[in-house]
Amino acid sequence: MPHVPALAARRRSRIAALSAAFSSALIVAFAVTGCVRLSTFDPNGLWKVVGEQCVPNARDKGEPGPCTTVDFQKRYAVLKDINGRAQYLLIPTDRVSGIESPEILYGGSPDYWVGAWDATRYVNAKLKTTLAPTQLGLEINATERRSQNQLHIHVDCMRADIADALAPYRHDAAGAWRWATLEGKRYRITRVTSLADRSNPFRVVERDLDAKQSMSAQTILVTGAGPDTARDGWLVVNSGLDVDNGSGSAEGLLDHACAIARPQ
């Protein structure tokens, strides 16, 4: 009869080998599809795709696959998510864990929100239409509400009912916060005229948190404030797990099926 500790060690070795093979098979599948569904299996999956595939492929071969694009100057990649009709993810090409990372607040840090808004053109291209800015949304989850340990901003369609609910805030004075209830959760909303520098949504949210709040607990959604962002700007929608009846995820305010783009 095999020695029990030796048998247990062999079993652990087999399980580890199967797990590694499964993870590798998933990454190979993503290289073929150009999409991502690693969140359930590997919290470092997005980084493995971007850092170990897209970046070297773009650098060495001039082809960013499985990503849609890699911008070395702006330090981010854009990747089609397997979830959603036209959902894309903006992902830093640096190792940045998420919304809690202090480096996203530094002066001179990459303008991830600017890049994410620019990536809405891929949503339009996928849908073969041109959505209004109010029909497009960007979103990031709180630390406890995400599955990946690499910062990623969701780029997708807005739910039509949420776009309608945000209409009263589209002409607010820039920088003034107002509270609203969306999907039964409390959110605060402000309008910005830029997504860079002091109007970078990370900085906009962080500088108005109170002493008991933290960036790690926050979720942020950004959508167009009107039909022309150059004139109307954007709405920054924020909630947190550290807010009474708050939320750590605004992803449910997006519509991964993009029903808003379907003919009525």
TrEMBL record:
Primary subcellular site in the record, as a coarse category: membrane
Keyword Lipid biosynthesis: yes
Subcellular location: Cell membrane
Domain of life: Bacteria
InterPro entries registered for this protein in UniProt: CDP-diacylglyc_Pase, HIT-like_sf
Top-rank EC class of the record's enzyme: hydrolase
Known EC number: 3.6.1.26
Pathway named in the protein's UniProt entry: Lipid metabolism; Phospholipid metabolism; CDP-diacylglycerol degradation; phosphatidate from CDP-diacylglycerol: step 1/1
Coiled coil region boundaries: none
Similarity comment text for this entry: Belongs to the Cdh family.
Annotated Pfam families: CDH (PF02611)
Claim: Cell membrane is one of the keywords in the record: yes
Membrane topology: Single-pass membrane protein
Name this polypeptide is given: CDP-diacylglycerol pyrophosphatase
Catalytic activity: a CDP-1,2-diacyl-sn-glycerol + H2O = a 1,2-diacyl-sn-glycero-3-phosphate + CMP + 2 H(+)
Keyword annotations from UniProtKB, A to Z: Cell membrane, Hydrolase, Lipid biosynthesis, Lipid metabolism, Membrane, Phospholipid biosynthesis, Phospholipid metabolism, Transmembrane, Transmembrane helix
